[in-house]
Fold this protein.
Amino acid sequence: MANIQYVKKFLMLLFFGLLCGYFSNAQLSEKHTYFSPGSLWLDTNHEHINAHGGGIFEEDGIYYWYGEHKNKNSLAQVGVRVYSSTDLYNWTNEGVALSVSEDPDSEITIGSVIERPKVIYNEKTQNYVMWFHLELKGQGYAAARTGVATSKSPMGPFTYLKSYRPNAGQWPINFSEDQKLSSASDNKLEWWTPEWTTALKNGLYVRRDFEEGQMSRDMTLFVDDDGSAYHIHSSEENQTLHIAELTDDYLGFTGKWARIQPGGQNEAPAIFKKGATYYMVTSGLTGWAPNPARSFKATSIFGPWESLGNPAKGKHSKVTFHSQSTFILPVISKSDTSYIYMGDRWNPKNHIDGRYIWLPLEINNGKPEIKWQDTWQLQESTPAE
Ligand code: DGJ
């Protein structure tokens, strides 16, 4: 009798287990039909998307999302991952676009830092060109370099070419003759003193790094309507943004560059153009912790850039909804262009668990605005033909 009870219990548990399994799988295999910022975002293989500090490249109605493959810590163990999607909600893991190298002498060896990868297409060479923030293994964030890789397919594999300290031996276009002259006290100033701040704004670190090339940490890319491409990066010990023109093949720097907001401490630049106006969203400088975003606009990419304040509005705007900008994606539909703010909600205790905060970005009264939504959908998801 007791045995029959056990068998009954076992069969019931089995049935219940199978039922739960069926429903959770059914839920997992459902297609996403909306964005849910901050939630786990499962790819078509039911795994949380691993593409942090990312950027998107679109071609023929297919979106490619490139990002840092993170593990528990933030050092590069795998490289840059790429996902594809046609609707921006559902993403297929297409594998590793740029692999770290097993060669200990390679600049992109396992254990280096590879952050914020961005991809653009060069019409002349028919190359897909990836740039990313590179820090050399074992040097923390001291190297402050930018790396470049190319591929003949947006899915990769990308081949690593080289890294730069940009614009060695070139002065910025918005630098006076006086600023080019170094002063004896340049390297003796104590950080955060008023004298240091003045010297910084006057190009202390531009002069220091003139021969070797300027520092380049958080970065993004932008291709203008005429095909000219620009590399925008946090430089001068993260105190000042630089905007630098890339060569025709997008693989190097022309030497034409400008300083933006000297001493403004902008990181995480994300840039887009609406009509004839360039807009930029950045973060402040607080490591992995969120801070109030900033926004700017300009009529020339080299500036002057007018400060427009924090684009995040409402509750939690002071921490940008617990996120840091990485990219602004224009979504071009038949009738309109809308913009998506893409941010990272970092989890420095377990980087792989970092979340994605995608929200609509609108231009209201000439200023970018981002408002929180628990869930949301694109107005019109049909890409333009
Ligand atoms: C903030 C940057 O925006 C991130 O990409 C990363 O470099 C962290 N700093 C490292 O502390």
